[in-house]
Amino acid sequence: MAKEKRTDKEVKAVESGTGDSGNKKGKGLTRRGFLGTVASIGGAALISNVNEASGYSQYGYGRREFPGHPGSFGCLTDFTRCVGCRSCEKACNEANHLAKPEVPFEDKSVFGEVRRPNAHAYTVVNRYDNPKDKNSPIYRKMQCNHCKEPACANACPVHAYSKTPEGAVYYDESLCFGCRYCMTACPFYVPAFDYWSALEPKIVKCTMCRDRVKKGGIPACAEACPTGAITFGQRDELINIAKEKILKSPDKYVNHIYGEHEVGGTNWLYISGVPFEQLGFPSALPSIPLYEQTRTFLNEVPLVLTVWPALFTMCYVASRQRNEPEKGKEANQGKEEIKNG
Question: Cα(150)–Cα(59) distance, rounded to whole angstroms?
């Protein structure tokens, strides 16, 4: 039986995919196109996150444990030698070209309250009571600890943070848009937001004098300390120095090098004559990077934010396009009824 000859209008409609054909092509989205698009989006999300899904951090691709940059530098602060002179604060202020504080560095009244680093001071010294001797307070220098695998960098959505081979955690303010996720992620509550630059979002923190170190120098605070409370050197050597001090004077020091293992290790290390929690240090921190504890959750975020919204949107579009012909038929039927009425 011969096929009916199609009109020119029908032929054009079939060729353009807007008319009826043997394959029932519809306008816009087809089932094959729908499934292909979803697969592409899902694949892109999985590929972009393949390193994290495999257990590798963005700082140690190919390794399940990132040991840090071999030979990186750091500092060791010995609280038994700090006298609270605040020479480190002054040196840091000058090295980073910060404005002079309202309270002079020689003024000890600042010890009346516990301070934290901020936009005007990248490092601060606080005073604590000594449970062993009430007449000999303990002074604690506080600044960024420069984690081997920093939580701030893992939390930053624009990669404004990076771990440098020298040991410092570097912050690039030109990339920052002010979300402040790093402030929440840091287990030591170090990054501070510069509220004076509201139109130009900026986080401020210690840089471990990265530029000085790259040129062969040492951090300004370590250079200025008159009692030798801050020692600069390679991290591995600093750990050996700290262990030797503790071994030689077990009655003077607690048997703990803070930063050797906390959150995977830091490049700024500490030894003390009293437990660190008595000096305001976070206690009971894990010995693995914080990223490891949140990896499973964070791996699902790209899928949730990309695949599912796209899937629901496409389902909506497909449903809407399927209903449009039915609405058209109802409209035409209504017109016919009116015409015939």
Answer: 9
